Amino acid sequence: MSTAAASLPGDPPGGRRAYTIWGIGAAVYFVAVIFRTSLGVAGLDAADRFDVNASALSTLSILQLLVYAGMQIPVGLLVDRLGTKKVLTIGVVLFTAGQLGFALSPSYGMALASRVLLGCGDAMTFISVLRLGSRWFPARQGPLIAQIAGLCGMAGNLVSTIVISRMLHGMGWTATFAGSAAAGAVVFVLLALFLKDHPEGYEPAPPAHSGPAFVRKLIAESWREPGTRLGMWVHFTTQFPAMVFLLLWGLPFLVEAQGLSRGTAGELLTLVVVSNMVVGLVYGQIIARHHAARMPLALGTIAATAAVWGATIAYPGAAAPMWLLITLCTVLGACGPASMIGFDYARPANPPERQGTASGIVNMGGFTASMTTLLAVGVLLDATGDNYRIAFSCVYVLEALGVVQILRLRARTARRERERLVASRVEAVHVPA
């Protein structure tokens, strides 16, 4: 049954100006993802530059994601308290400084510190963009706007796989990463000059409470909602296979285990990104019209990913055929859009004053799973002499955990959503015309 509804009283108007303002926030997220994923096409170069093994190389990404995941709830609280513009401004300064520091790093230790700084700034972007969308667009457009935000991130990933990789091999390490840092300065100017937290006349009420006790209460109330927890586990289970593939291990797997050239491997990584963008538009339209499709889409994506991932790493012989690698990369493209479904479970479960906090909890899911898998793959590669079949099998442990939690929480979440729908209809009946 379609759940698309007319705008609720007090809904923001949306429209062209909303897209323009929100587009500035999305541009910040776009640049953040370029910086986040640039290591994915530079993994082999980084190993040579800093003279490190697979475990140490994975630590560069793990530490970045550890900071990112650990900051999600604090950032959600900051967005709820300070607003989008202030948090995004801090984020731009931090991730730009991190990218520039990475360009100039003479040692592995400085590279680690730079990735921490980058992860810290990156952590402030996506939740801010989600909040900006909820302030500028009607609630019925929420799923589509969230998927478009995900598309902006994947466009940033596309820049990494196509532009950054070519710059890296044409211009060298320092010029590539330092040059890309200029994009941070551009979005900083746009942000400072033009971004507004909300339309005129739609200013949210100031926070009624503050202090550590209120913060703990806000987190506890967000977590208590089954929709928040279901959203986190959906994000956890759907996002991480593609993230691990794009962020670090896809290029080495395709080059070292599958025997492809770097150019062909880069084209396959690009296919993941293009598939993500196409699937994101499809998923956004479907969910905006039929909320009941959320769970089938999420579980279907998990099942398809597990099947194709297993077929690829278990294929007899030294390397999988190209048609199977193309299928794998196409299916991995659905992981990002499926992870956005998690936010669509948390959004209706929480009132406006908890949206940032709830989104932070959800966003921790996929990045925690990605961080864990990045570490596990690196350790297993070192322990098994670069056996990617064994190392990549660890994906199934986290997928099994996530599916169990999703199945456990889905009925409880559906019941709570029905209760809220009935309550809102009763309230609407009693509101005087």
Summarize the structure.
This protein has helices at residues 16-37, 43-50, 54-70, 72-82, 84-104, 108-122, 126-136, 142-171, 173-180, 182-194, 212-224, 226-257, 262-289, 294-313, 322-332, 335-346, 355-384, 388-392, 395-430. It is an all-alpha fold and 433 residues long.
Describe the model:
There is one protein chain. The protein is mostly helical and 433 residues long. It has one domain (16-198, 209-430): MFS general substrate transporter like domains (Growth Hormone, Chain: A). 79% of the residues lie in helices and 0% in strands. It has helices at 16-37, 43-50, 54-70, 72-82, 84-104, 108-122, 126-136, 142-171, 173-180, 182-194, 212-224, 226-257, 262-289, 294-313, 322-332, 335-346, 355-384, 388-392, 395-430. Helix 16 runs antiparallel to helix 17 (355-384).
CATH level 4 superfamily: MFS general substrate transporter like domains
Describe the global form.
Answer: globular
Task: Give the helix proportion (percent range).
Answer: over 70%
Unreliable stretches covering 5 or more consecutive residues: 1-9
CATH class identity: Mainly Alpha
The assigned structural class equals: mainly alpha
**Annotation field: number of helices:** 19
Largest sheet: none
Chain-wise SSE layout:
Layout: H1 16-37, H2 43-50, H3 54-70, H4 72-82, H5 84-104, H6 108-122, H7 126-136, H8 142-171, H9 173-180, H10 182-194, H11 212-224, H12 226-257, H13 262-289, H14 294-313, H15 322-332, H16 335-346, H17 355-384, H18 388-392, H19 395-430
Keywords:
Growth Hormone, Chain: A; about 425 residues; about 80% helix; globular; about 0% strand; mainly alpha; disordered N terminus; single chain
